[in-house]
Every structure is written in C-alpha cells, then in structure tokens.
C-alpha cells in the first residue's frame, strides 16, 4: 500500500494539522506532558475540526497524539485551576486560551466531535487516559497500537466525566464494565480493550498509521451522505432532541432536492398558491 504524503494544513502551537487524500489528521503535540490538553490545545483542536468539517475535499478525520508514548493523558493538571481552567494573570503564557472565569473548554469540543458529520478515527499509541480516554471514546472508530493503554483516572485526581465520558462508554462496553473502568481506575491493554469492544483493531506500533489510513481509505470509497446519515442515526436516540434534530435536518436537506419542496419555494417567489396536488400522499 502506498504511503500517505501528509501536507501541513495550518500553523498551530499545541497541535499539528495535516491533510492528504481526503483525510485530515489532528495531532495533539505536547509529548512532554503525554499530550495532556490545556485550554489552547482544545481551542486549536476545535478550529482544526471545524476546518476539516467545512472542507468538502475531506471525508474522514484522524485524531491522534504526537509520539509513541501517549494519545492523550487528559486535562493538563498543572494548569487546572480551582474553578475550571483559568487564565493565570501573573503568567498568561502558562494558560494560553484559559478563561478569566473557570470553564471547561472540552465540553463544547465533545459536542463538536459528536455532531461532526464525518467519521473521526482515533489513532492510539501509548496512554489514552482520563480526558484523553474520553476523546478516543468519542471518536467513531479506534485503531490501537499494541502498546496502547486505556483507562479513566478521574476519581483518583478529583474529577469525573458524567457526560459522554460515562454514557457513550456504557454504550460501548456495557454498564457493569463502564462502572468498573470509572470506579476502579484500572489500566487496560490494547488486547483487553479489543475484547471489550472499546477499540476496532490492534496492530504493531510501526503499522499504526498505515492501518489507520487503510481504514480511512476504505471509508472514503463509500457514499459520504450514507456515512453522514449513519453517524447521525447511531447518535439520534442517545443524543435526545439534539440527535433527532441532526437526523431530521439531514432529511430536510434531501427533501429540498425534491420537486415537492421546490414547488413550495417557487410558489412563494412567484406570489401564487402552491400546487401540491400532483405529489403522492404516500401510504
Ligand atoms: C499518562 C501517565 C500514565 C504516563 O506515565 P509515564 O509514562 O510514567 O509518564 P510521567 O513521567 O508520569 O509523565 C511525563 C510528564 O508528563 C506530565 N504529565 C502527564 N500527564 C499529565 C497531565 N494530565 N497533566 C499535566 N502533566 C502531565 C508528567 O507530570 C511528567 O512531567 P514532569 O515534568 O516530568 O513531572 C501519567 O503521566 C499520568 O497518570 N498522568 C496523569 C493522568 C491524569 O491524571 N489526567 C487527568 C485526568 S482528569 C481529566 O482528564 C479531565 C479532563 C476532561 O476531559 C474533563 C471532563 C469533564 C469535565 C471537565 C474536564 C476537564 O477538562 O477537566
């Protein structure tokens, strides 16, 4: 299989962003802290994901971490304030992108990943721990290297993610296992993760990118709208009104392409009564 030739797709501080062959790759680039995310990291991931969504050449997105040691170790505990992630007025460089009142930047990013109509694939080498584990859980697929280690640590460091971090994990591995993962804060190998349905494939570290790209290329051969509708369908029930809204608006997008919908628009523009009589009242 031909190696992929990534091209840089923007300048960032905490992430790297590349594109090639219809694939966008977002790499958390803080290996010195096992790719922990600070506010700026999340802001930049969000910008890149938005770009990948808007780019009509892009069909699949890879989320990964720099280096072999970690996908992501979660929120940066060294810039965590007492009320969320804050600006440090005495040292603004310490928390670039931090808020002046405490907040969690990752909340909106989780929703953005969930609503992104293109498949997101986690490419995991090393640790996917804490909020880093939640990021891979939120990806649509996960390809893991043999050295990958998975786990939640919230109750050990005074944190918890009762949002998608609990609900989507439960969907993946079942409620008993999800509670075990959160309550005991154990670590799981890539093989154990595969057995519990937490990842899609495990490959040797040196083949991780090749295998991930192979999965992406396979998806790129498929109908983009069908993939979009499937992602929305998988989430419709779990995401409540927001999930139904995504699916319903996508249905409306298709409806706009029909003569029936166009008759309503054209009648308004032509200042006449719409004539829907020729359209079937489907049984
Ligand atoms: C990941 C480890 C298991 C890796 O262990 P090891 O390979 O032995 O490396 P270390 O020597 O421990 O680490 C190297 C270096 O990196 C620093 N580092 C590692 N992780 C972090 C981190 N998360 N934050 C800051 N710094 C980190 C480490 O200190 C070392 O630097 P030195 O200068 O040499 O000291 C291990 O490192 C580990 O266990 N890391 C901590 C994992 C952790 O506690 N993560 C945070 C969990 S809580 C969380 O992620 C919440 C985030 C979130 O999604 C969320 C959800 C809902 C609401 C709010 C939030 C929110 O954002 O807070």
From TrEMBL:
InterPro entries (UniProt xref): ClpP/crotonase-like_dom_sf, DHNA-CoA_synthase_MenB, Enoyl-CoA_hyd/isom_CS, Enoyl-CoA_hydra/iso, Enoyl-CoA_hydra_C
Organism: Rubrobacter xylanophilus
Gene Ontology annotations for the cellular component aspect, listed alphabetically: cytosol
The keyword Lyase is annotated on this UniProt entry: yes
Gene responsible for this protein: menB
Gene3D superfamilies: 2-enoyl-CoA Hydratase, Chain A, domain 1, Lyase 2-enoyl-coa Hydratase, Chain A, domain 2
Keyword terms: Lyase, Menaquinone biosynthesis
Protein name: 1,4-dihydroxy-2-naphthoyl-CoA synthase
Reactions catalysed according to its record: 2-succinylbenzoyl-CoA + H(+) = 1,4-dihydroxy-2-naphthoyl-CoA + H2O
Binding site for substrate: 34, 73-77, 85, 127-131, 159, 256, 271
């Amino acid at each position: 299989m031909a190696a992929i030739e990534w091209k840089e797709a923007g300048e960032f501080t905490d992430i790297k962003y590349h594109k090639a062959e219809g694939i966008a790759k977002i790499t958390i680039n803080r290996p010195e802290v096992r790719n922990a995310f600070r506010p700026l990291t999340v802001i930049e991931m969000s910008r890149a994901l938005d770009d990948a969504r808007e780019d009509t050449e892009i069909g699949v997105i890879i989320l990964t971490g720099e280096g072999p040691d970690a996908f992501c170790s979660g929120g940066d505990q060294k810039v965590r304030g007492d009320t969320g992630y804050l600006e440090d007025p005495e040292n603004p460089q310490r928390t670039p992108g931090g808020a002046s009142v405490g907040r969690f930047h990752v909340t909106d990013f989780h929703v953005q990943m969930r609503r992104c109509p293109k498949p997101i694939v986690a490419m995991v080498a090393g640790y996917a721990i804490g909020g880093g584990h939640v990021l891979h859980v939120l990806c649509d697929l996960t390809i893991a290297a043999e050295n990958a280690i998975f786990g939640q640590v919230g109750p050990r460091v005074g944190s918890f993610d009762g949002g998608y971090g609990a609900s989507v994990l439960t969907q993946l591995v079942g409620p008993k296992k999800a509670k075990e993962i959160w309550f005991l804060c154990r670590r799981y190998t890539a093989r154990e993760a595969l057995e519990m349905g937490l990842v899609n494939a495990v490959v040797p570290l040196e083949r991780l990118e090749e295998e991930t790209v192979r999965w992406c290329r396979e998806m790129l051969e498929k109908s983009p709208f069908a993939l979009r509708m499937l992602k929305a369908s998988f989430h419709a029930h779990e995401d409540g009104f927001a999930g139904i809204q995504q699916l319903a608006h996508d249905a409306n997008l298709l409806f706009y392409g029909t003569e029936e919908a166009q008759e309503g628009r054209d009648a308004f523009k032509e200042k006449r009564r719409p004539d829907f009589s020729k359209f079937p009242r489907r049984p």
